[in-house]
Amino acid sequence: MTMTMEAPAKTPDISGEVLISADSHVMEDPDFWHSKLPDALRGDVPAFPPRPKTGTAMDDQRPGGYDPNERVREMETDGVSAETLYPTLGLRLFSLESPEAQEACFRIYNDWLIEYCAAAPGRLVGIPCIATYDIDKAVAELHRTSEAGLVGALVWQVPHPDLPFTGAHYDKLWAAAQELDVPIHLHILTGFDYSASVNFGQRQSDALLAHRGSVNLKLQSVTNSLFDLIFTGVFERFPRLKAVVVESEIGWIPFVLQQWDYYYKRFKDQRPMPMTMLPSEYFARNCYATFFNDYVGGQLLSWWGHDNCMWSTDYPHPNSPWPNSRRVLAENLGHLPADVIRKLVNTNVRKLYPIGG
Asked: Is the dihedral of CA 161, 164, 168, 172 positive or negative?
């Protein structure tokens, strides 16, 4: 049986809706870190190839990736009022084996992001990269960046094998994030999964592996990490901690939560876990997820995820619908009531981030 995924015929008028992207990106210069790192650490950080000039959204044709004033103009062209910002090349640095190099790279990036977002406070919301090899340093960087206006912590989605989320290593960071009332973020392509073995900035030459990574391995990474956070009692110990699953789409989430609930209830006496609620209840209370190109997830939003899902543009990456976000949004979510659309494109994001206006 073939499933045809057609856009719904109904396209509501969202011309007056204030759109906020929960996952957009900056574009670092390929020489960004090597030009700033001390000589002793440069050898621990891979070199990125020159930025392509192919006419795609991921090149110099869209200067807003590195110029915040241009970015605001590009947002206005797309009808987007505010954006939550993540790195592009910096995502790959979460798989660095050197704690010192990773800490130095992230501090350099965070300092630059602080200045970038200062050009439009309340419209550009930066998420700092936090190295977690040394958790005391991680907590200190979380406080430093929070005081400077960045929000929360982007941590590796797949930890170093010696530092799994199943251990107590991260508890000080979770406690600090809860105290500051800022979220932690798990973004694709961060850490020690399949993405760590892909050459920096290069095309994947093995087509089979590329497709497997884009779907199967990507979902395996985030599913395992979310499982570890829920089933080891992180949200039981830190009930006000918020976690955001970024750029993994959402269509898979209700099925996985259903299965986790089923097996948790079936075996909770034989296999006790440090939990007092169902896995789906922890997700509903503590977790959020972003989406931008997920027809299946859009259909599920008719009955699930109204308070936990957040629309994004992924700008300026090639997946982005810029400059047609309003049209694409209306086509993909046209079957939903206006109040639900408002939550997905605006209200839910405001619960987590200091968006102005």
From this structure: positive
Which H or E run includes 243?
Answer: strand 243-246
pLDDT digits (tens, 9 = 90+) for 219-271: 999 999 999 999 999 999 999 999 999 999 999 999 999 999 999 999 999 99
The token duo for 237 is 């110990």
Q: CB of 69 within 8 A of CB of 118? A: no
To 5 degrees, how large is the angle CA 35–CA 40–CA 44? 80
Residue positions counted in the chain: 357
Complete domains list, the chain, with CATH: 19-352 (3.20.20.140)
In angstroms, the CA 341 to CA 356 distance is 19
Dist. CA 106–CA 112, nearest whole Å: 10
Helices (H), the chain: 39-42, 68-78, 99-117, 135-147, 171-180, 207-212, 218-231, 234-237, 253-267, 279-286, 295-300, 325-333, 338-342, 348-352
Give pairs for 224-229: CB < 8 Å, separation 24+. 224/158, 225/157, 225/158, 225/159, 225/165, 225/186, 226/186, 226/283, 226/287, 227/260, 228/164, 228/165, 228/166, 229/165
Task: Report the C-alpha dihedral over residues 302, 308, 311, 316, rounded to 10 degrees.
Answer: -150
In this prediction, what percent of the chain has a pLDDT beyond 70? 90
Which residue in the block uniquely carries the two structure tokens 């977690």?
132
CA distances (Å), origin 295, targets 190, 261, 299, 331, 355 = 25, 25, 6, 10, 27
Is pTM beyond 0.85 here? yes
